Structure to design on (1003 residues):
């Protein structure tokens, strides 16, 4: 073979490889398969050199070469081991016959736990069937049983690595076998310790509890083996202190054996630092001492560590008793104060202590590393596992799978974490396997041998084209995904909410539910129980997630004014969306959505009805930005798109009405969640109503055009009242006037008939009975009111206002604003009415007296019979009407000379009046406070009851609900909040009425 040919096969130094091939006696023809498999190793040069060394020390090199040629399984296993592990190559050189460990059926078979234990105990001359096996100090190995144990251990690792590196064992199998091998080694070491001190061993029973990765059966090739010791006096021994001293000496001797070094090297360190009180505490405690410590003194991290506790060696009955006693304490730990915060803080401390130079190469402790996955899984286990035994596994991948099956983690998230965990553990194994040393750092590319180490690692992982680049790219991608999922799961607010629940309530059973429902304030516990049963029955993933969510959500429902309505609404929404994958995932992963949903459904019938018509809109609750008022151009574009998608005007406007319903829900949610104030609410409702009318007008015109006939006129829609002022409420009709202007040459009567038809079609489309809420258009503020024509020409309006216009119409026109139809025509209408609403020199004294008489008559005649004038938000004393009439009178008097007063907004007019000295600042503030509170209360009545109402209800149930919707809270059954609302309202409106009477009626 030529140097070039070997270089092309992957050897780094072709000339050196040629010499080594010749030294090994490899014939290119007879041993071509051997050279081929050597080139497939992680490091072909290292594998070839290792084979040369093995052949040189072998008593019969021909036997080995013949075996490699005849047995392809042996050939692949041996070359993979030689190319990946210098440490195992050294073992083969020390024990040349051990290559046979990689040949035959045993090399391909995964041994059982009992088999591994028995094999190592036989190695040290101990009887595996004995209750307390004792080693034979005079065994076959002249260097003693500890040396024999190390040799046997490395033989087991050699065989295991042969399967691992050839893909015959997956990560889970490899890690479990390593954990079983470590446990068997400790049992054998304990047997040696008993042989060294038989008298002391006879005084005590000693159990070894595996912690960490050994306890979870997910051990690395080289890792500290974390243990805790529990001991009791042997039967018949009465001196407990002597027994504990003896157990301590036996345990210390056992720990020493795997960590001692001879020519076989060191196996690993046995670490007992996770015991109670850590390194400062006694090495060995009795069972009662352990229980007492964990009940009284243990910190949060200690319970997290106990999650993986498992008896691995020594007295099996005592180990089982330890686990039986400690396990309940582990699953109660999540109920400790600040438990979740403590675990999260501990993870941050781990990251903070990583040396800066190692942070980007640390695959275990660094960001995006194994600890991020393990901490996420363990925190979820500890919080949810106290009520779900299926989660109580010490193994990370098994626990993650249980979390996914139980609905606590999304399938995709669980799959992503599992894949990342396997990748990182595989990298960790390959790093450690090279020298059989404990490490979690990727090689430093800047170090002299860093590129070669990274190349070997990349090839071992299967990256052939560009091993270093592909390895680093995969690591960065995996680390980024782990970090994302860790942030999502580890800091999930639901963990805090579940952890705060009493242990018995963390996963509510139907038997427990009735009493709790009554305690939480549900009026109909039996009905609520039926809803819970319907939501949580069965074994589906949907039911599993609901069983996690509902114990927490019941608390949130109970905080709402009407918990029963909230739970009923949640059931209805869930019935419609429960099979939709994103819905329950959203509630579980973004607890803010679930909490907001519970509050809204338990507070507002209006919101519930809107949500049930399109339950998918629950997604907008995830982010405050999604609740913000949307700009008019955006809504206009969506409405136009909706019209284009449908063939008929009816279907097109129905889609636009659905758009409006969505915006009503958005606005109501923002209002109740205090994301938007009353100004934003009024503006949002006004904008979407204007967009809806504009779209309906376009559809109406297109519909009439399809019926034949030319367009004869232009039409503009003028908003009036609160619509024109941008102050619509949920219950408001759209007050409008219609103005048209015949096109040049068109007959006026025909144009008017066309305009009438257009308006009728517009109103029909907006009010067609449908699932979407209608938009009622009210034109009663037009000239002559209900007696006048629905539509007038611009010239007709001009003629009317010149001859017949009254003061109330000038006042009404203060808030007139074109909102749909022909823009140029709307501007001409504004120019027409400006002299009426902003009369030169201001309104006359006679007009002022007329306005005052009209206001007094309205109070006397329009206030509903039996209505309490102190609680009527619109027409009552100090209510909306009082404040608006004060603002409008100031405008009629002074807007001709103060241009800033030419505004349609009530509050803006008050601000300008204060700024120009027309209104005392304190009076202006008093009026503003009353107007805002009355507007909020009026909106809350509609939101809570689902129907319009201008009076504050006096019934305690409704009043309490309205108070809750407005943010009032009390420690009792709500009467305190209700009383506070009434007190605040009456106080604010009483003050406003005083200001109104002084400003409005006095010159």
């Amino acid at each position: 073979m030529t140097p070039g040919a070997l270089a092309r096969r992957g050897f780094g130094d072709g000339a050196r490889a040629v010499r080594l091939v010749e030294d090994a006696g490899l014939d290119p023809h007879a041993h071509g398969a051997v050279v081929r498999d050597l080139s497939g190793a992680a490091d072909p040069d290292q594998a070839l050199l290792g084979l040369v060394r093995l052949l040189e020390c072998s008593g019969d090199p021909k036997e080995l070469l013949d075996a490699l040629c005849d047995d392809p399984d042996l050939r692949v296993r041996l070359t993979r081991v030689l190319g990946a592990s210098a440490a195992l190559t050294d073992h083969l050189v020390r024990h040349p016959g051990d290559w046979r460990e990689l040949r035959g059926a045993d090399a391909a078979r995964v041994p059982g736990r009992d088999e591994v234990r028995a094999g190592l105990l036989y190695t040290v001359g101990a009887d595996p069937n004995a209750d307390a096996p004792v080693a034979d100090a005079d065994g076959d190995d002249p260097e003693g049983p500890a040396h024999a144990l190390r040799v046997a251990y490395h033989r087991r690792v050699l065989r295991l690595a042969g399967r691992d590196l050839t893909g015959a064992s997956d990560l889970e199998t490899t890690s479990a076998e390593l954990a079983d091998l470590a446990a068997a080694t400790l049992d054998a070491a304990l047997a040696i310790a008993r042989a060294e001190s038989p008298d002391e061993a006879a005084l005590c029973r000693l159990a070894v509890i595996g912690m960490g990765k050994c306890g979870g059966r997910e051990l690395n090739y080289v890792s500290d083996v974390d243990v805790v010791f529990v001991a009791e006096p042997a039967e018949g021994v009465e001196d407990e202190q002597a027994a504990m001293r003896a157990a301590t000496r036996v345990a210390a001797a056992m720990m020493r054996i795997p960590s001692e070094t001879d020519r076989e090297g060191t196996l690993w360190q046995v670490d007992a630092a996770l015991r109670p009180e850590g390194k400062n505490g006694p090495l060995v405690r009795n069972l009662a001492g352990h229980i007492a410590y964990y009940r009284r003194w243990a910190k949060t991290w200690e319970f997290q560590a106990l999650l993986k506790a498992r008896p691995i060696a020594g007295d099996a009955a005592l180990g089982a008793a330890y686990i039986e006693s400690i396990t309940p304490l582990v699953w109660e730990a999540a109920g400790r104060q600040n438990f979740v915060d403590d675990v999260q803080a501990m993870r941050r401390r781990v990251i903070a202590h990583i040396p800066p130079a190692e942070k980007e190469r640390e695959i275990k402790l660094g960001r995006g590393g194994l600890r991020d996955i393990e901490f996420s899984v363990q925190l979820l286990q500890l919080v949810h596992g106290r009520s779900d035994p299926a989660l109580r596994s010490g193994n990370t991948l098994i626990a993650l799978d249980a979390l996914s099956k139980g609905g606590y983690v999304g399938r995709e998230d669980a799959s992503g974490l599992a894949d990342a965990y396997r990748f990182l553990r595989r990298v960790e194994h390959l790093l450690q396997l090279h020298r059989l040393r404990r490490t979690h750092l990727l090689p430093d590319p800047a170090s002299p041998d860093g590129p070669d180490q990274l190349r070997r690692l990349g090839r071992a992982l299967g990256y052939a084209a560009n091993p270093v680049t592909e390895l680093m790219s995969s690591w960065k991608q995996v680390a980024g995904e782990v970090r994302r999922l860790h942030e999502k799961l580890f800091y999930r607010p639901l963990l805090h909410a579940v952890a705060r629940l009493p242990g018995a309530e963390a996963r509510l059973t139907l038997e427990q539910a009735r009493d709790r429902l009554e305690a939480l304030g549900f009026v109909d516990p039996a009905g609520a129980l039926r809803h819970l049963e319907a939501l949580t029955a069965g074994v589906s993933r949907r039911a599993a997630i609901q069983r996690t969510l509902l114990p927490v959500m019941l608390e949130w429902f109970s905080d709402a004014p009407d918990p029963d309505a909230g739970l009923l609404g949640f059931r209805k929404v869930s019935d419609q969306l429960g099979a939709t994958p994103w819905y329950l995932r959203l509630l579980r992963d973004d607890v803010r959505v679930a909490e907001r949903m519970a509050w809204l459904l338990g507070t507002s019938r209006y919101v519930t009805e809107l949500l049930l018509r399109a339950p998918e809109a629950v997604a907008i609750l995830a982010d405050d930005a999604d609740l913000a008022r949307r700009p008019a151009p955006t809504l206009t574009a969506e409405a136009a798109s909706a019209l284009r998608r449908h063939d008929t005007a009816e279907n097109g406007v129905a889609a636009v009405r659905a758009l409006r319903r969505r915006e009503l829900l958005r606005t109501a949610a923002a209002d109740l969640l205090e994301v938007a104030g009353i100004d934003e609410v009024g503006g949002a409702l006004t904008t979407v109503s204007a967009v809806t009318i504009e779209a309906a007008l376009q559809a109406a015109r297109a519909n009439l055009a399809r019926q034949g006939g030319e367009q004869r006129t232009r039409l503009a829609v003028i908003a009036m009242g609160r619509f024109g002022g941008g102050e619509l409420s949920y219950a408001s009709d759209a007050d409008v006037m219609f103005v048209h202007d015949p096109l040049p040459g068109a007959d006026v009567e025909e144009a008017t008939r066309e305009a009438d038809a257009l308006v009728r079609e517009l109103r029909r489309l907006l009010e067609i009975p449908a699932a979407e809420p209608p938009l009622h258009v009210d034109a009663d503020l037009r000239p002559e009111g209900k007696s006048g024509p629905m539509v007038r020409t611009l010239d007709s309006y001009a003629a009317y206002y010149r001859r017949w216009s009254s003061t109330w119409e000038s006042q009404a026109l203060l808030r007139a604003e074109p909102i749909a139809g022909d823009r140029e025509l709307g501007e001409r209408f504004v120019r027409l009415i400006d002299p009426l609403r902003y009369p030169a020199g201001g309104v006359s004294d006679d007009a002022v007296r007329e306005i005052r008489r009209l206001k007094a008559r309205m109070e006397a005649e329009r206030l509903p019979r039996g209505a309490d004038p102190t609680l009527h938000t619109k027409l009552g004393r100090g209510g909306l009407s009082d404040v608006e009439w004060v603002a409008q009178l100031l405008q009629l008097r002074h807007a001709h000379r103060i241009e800033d007063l030419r505004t349609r907004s009530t509050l803006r007019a008050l601000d300008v009046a204060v700024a120009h000295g027309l209104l005392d600042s304190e009076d202006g503030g008093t009026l503003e406070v009353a107007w805002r509170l009355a507007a909020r209360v009026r909106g809350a009545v509609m939101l809570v009851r689902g129907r319009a109402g201008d009076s504050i209800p006096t019934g305690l149930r409704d009043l309490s609900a309205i108070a809750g919707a407005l943010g009032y809270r009390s420690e009792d059954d709500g009467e305190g909040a209700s009383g506070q609302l009434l007190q605040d309202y009456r106080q604010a409106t009483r003050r406003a009425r005083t200001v109104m009477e002084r400003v409005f009626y006095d010159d």
Notes: The chain has a mean pLDDT of 91. Residues 508-577+593-601 form one domain.
